[in-house]
Amino acid sequence: MMKYVDIAAHILLGLVFTVFGLAGLFNLIPQPELDQEAAFFMQGLSANAYFMIVLKLVEVVVGILILVRRFVPLALVLLAPVVVHIFLFHVFLAPEGIPMAVALVVLEAYLGFVVYRKSFKTVLAPRPQ
Fold first, then answer.
1. Best CA proximity match to 59, nearest among 98, 97, 14
2. 60-86: per-residue pLDDT in tens?
3. Domain with 71 in it
4. Pair 16, 104: CB distance under 8 Å
5. Is 29 exposed, middle or buried (0-12, 13-18, 19+ CB in 10 A)?
6. What is the torsional sign of CA 81, 83, 12, 62?
């Protein structure tokens, strides 16, 4: 049973970041209406020519790595700050997206702390060798 949960977690997390990363790069999905504060924040991120492009490229690469199950621990490390910021953005600026943000946190945490726990054993050691 857990094997199917692991597969589902890989597919869901990988697809979300691959699809939305590509959509962000190529403007495939119209952006939802945001309130003034959230829109101002997003404008600030988008004002810089490189930031959103690099972010979306990282999302696509990480999503593909998770989907094909190659270098997944590295992909999870690269994805962690993205997931944290998505979660915090929705908590403080766009609460209507909290369910999806929580789902991303749960998927990331499940893969990192359950499926790939051994990969992070030395990283999480209080006194590494």
1. 14
2. 999 999 999 999 999 999 999 999 999
3. 2-27+38-115
4. yes
5. exposed
6. negative
For residues 25-52, give the mean pLDDT: 93
Cβ count within 10 A of residue 108: 21
Q: Which two tokens stand for residue 124?
A: 């999480």
- What angle do helix axes 98-110 and 2-26 make, rounded to 10 degrees? 130
Residue 89 inside a domain? The answer is yes
- Given a cut of 90, whether residue 49 has pLDDT beyond it is no
- In angstroms, the CA 90 to CA 47 distance is 20
> How far is the C-alpha of 7 from the C-alpha of 67, rounded, in Å?
9
Q: What pLDDT does 123 receive?
A: 85
Give the pLDDT score at 57.
98
> Using CA atoms, how far apart are residues 9 and 30, in angstroms rounded to an integer?
26
In a domain, 124, yes or no: no
- Residue showing tokens 């101002």: 40
Dist. CA 42–CA 27, nearest whole Å? 15
Instruction: Report the domain count for the chain.
Output: 1
Is the pLDDT at 124 greater than 90, yes or no?
Answer: no
